[in-house]
Amino acid sequence: MHIDVWADFACPWSYLGIHHLRDALTRFEHRDQVEVRFHAYLLDPEQSSVLQMSQAEFLVHTHPGMSLDEADEALERVSELSRADGISLDFESLVLAPTSFAHKAMAAAREMDERSGITTGAATYQFTYAEALFRARFEVGLNLADPDVLIGCAQDVRIPEMLVVDALSDPVASSEVFSDYQIAIQMGIDSIPTYLFDRRFVVQGLQSLDATVRILESAWSQSLSSTDTTEETH
Known about the structure:
The protein is of the alpha+beta class.
């Protein structure tokens, strides 16, 4: 089974959602037959520098129609949910840096997955690097537009420095980021994280851990049914 995930490192719900997906996969009986591919979504595609505003103000900026009070309430909800999973979000220290650089750096994690042959389950470099980047932004208050931060996060999960350096200067990696984002827009994705199972079954928005486990099981059953139907047809 193949899962495409659209998320943004500027989104705390994406952080928690990917954490839930990874945790759910560790519990899933068929995890070694599940491949997860991360795709870039940009909450603010025009952002090119650090913004001097709070996370709540950023939500208002990127979600037309949302009030500041509503943004504060939403952040409190995601903070409470995160604490239940042992994640401590620090919105006071947050650096509102553009995330396109971090998305480009993810190409290094995909390269490591291919080199290692670990392309399925919850132990891929894509999972470990993505969570390291989310942790750096939301828990440690680091600037994800700083190449040294991106390299440091990579080294923490055993991705060589030069792979990140190469990814950051690679025009193909840059085009993939914006291609991923454009595909998301064309698909009508307006809530992240979004999960696409076997290119036909879509789930949008943050799901609880229990719900994520159930979704995996349901998607797996549908995948098997589809395979069986195809084989009978031929």
